[in-house]
Amino acid sequence: MAWIQIRLNSTNEKAEQISDFLEEIGSVSVTFMDSQDTPIFEPLPGETRLWGNTDVIALFDAETDMNVVVDALKQAKHLDEHTAYKIEQIEDKDWEREWMDNFHPMQFGQRLWICPSWRDVPDPNAVNVMLDPGLAFGTGTHPTTALCLEWLDSLDLKDKTVIDFGCGSGILAIAALKLGAKSAVGIDIDPQAILASRNNAEQNGVADRLQLFLSDEKPSDLKADVVVANILAGPLKELYPVISQLVKPYGDLGLSGILATQAQSVCDAYAERFVLAPVAEREEWCRITGKLKA
């Protein structure tokens, strides 16, 4: 089915109202895009976070008379001579195939590859994790996930135990197991993450070595040789007492989900009990690693 799209430049104050109006007059979908590519971080639960210079993009059936849509926007005072807008036809594509084509096998470190199931494995002799994009966060495409995967690849995980705190898709725990870890534990607050991690572990043949717990159900005496937590700076600082207790003496800790501007405050929170390595940074995000002191 063919579509026609209208794109309006708006502001954070007006975008929600315009979106509601476009849906009322027949738009099948409305999305927001930052016209200046401004990153948005840590929205509150249930909050739709908008920003300045927001483009509102609405999709209509190709048979729609867009002159009527433009006139309606003007009459509702959502469009005037100061508002930039553009109307364009959208090519009818196999969107599922288009989406799948955007995901390719990715290498992290020296040994590790993350591969979607519909792609050929580039190196059969490498450590290959088969993982498809899904509902739970974490496929390796985000810089914080990449930083954690590269760190795990750099460790000698043979016979080690690993905890993935905030496991999401289970990508870090599964990668650790395939890199040689004896066993792993995934912890998350979201039941969907537990389900996704279990399914991904089964797909990779490591489900028998992965335990999964909701955060309030994890064993009180749980500890591991390696603990990795890829969440956000605020929770990392708040959960310092919990996360630090999960690391065995002289064990390794890896933290990410942290903006470079937040790195020092997270380091300050963990420096008392951990010998920290230099912060690794990528695309304004960073990773903090260290060893638990005696």
TrEMBL record:
Keywords of this entry: Cytoplasm, Methyltransferase, Ribonucleoprotein, Ribosomal protein, S-adenosyl-L-methionine, Transferase
GO molecular function, a single term: protein-lysine N-methyltransferase activity
Keyword flag RNA-binding: no
Single biological process term from Gene Ontology: methylation
Enzyme's top EC category: transferase
Primary location group: cytoplasm
GO CC, alphabetical: cytosol; ribosome
Gene3D superfamilies given in the database record: Vaccinia Virus protein VP39
Subcellular localization, as worded in the UniProt entry: Cytoplasm
One protein family per Pfam: PrmA
Keyword Cytoplasm (UniProt): yes
Database matches in InterPro entries: Ribosomal_L11_MeTrfase_PrmA (IPR050078), Ribosomal_PrmA_MeTrfase (IPR004498), SAM-dependent_MTases_sf (IPR029063)
CDD domains membership: AdoMet_MTases
Entry EC number(s): 2.1.1.-
Record: residues binding S-adenosyl-L-methionine: T145, G166, D188, N230
Highest taxon in the source lineage: Bacteria
Reactions catalysed, as given in the entry: L-lysyl-[protein] + 3 S-adenosyl-L-methionine = N(6),N(6),N(6)-trimethyl-L-lysyl-[protein] + 3 S-adenosyl-L-homocysteine + 3 H(+)
Entries under PANTHER family matching the protein: ELECTRON TRANSFER FLAVOPROTEIN BETA SUBUNIT LYSINE METHYLTRANSFERASE (PTHR43648)
Assigned protein family: Belongs to the methyltransferase superfamily. PrmA family.
Name of the featured protein: Ribosomal protein L11 methyltransferase
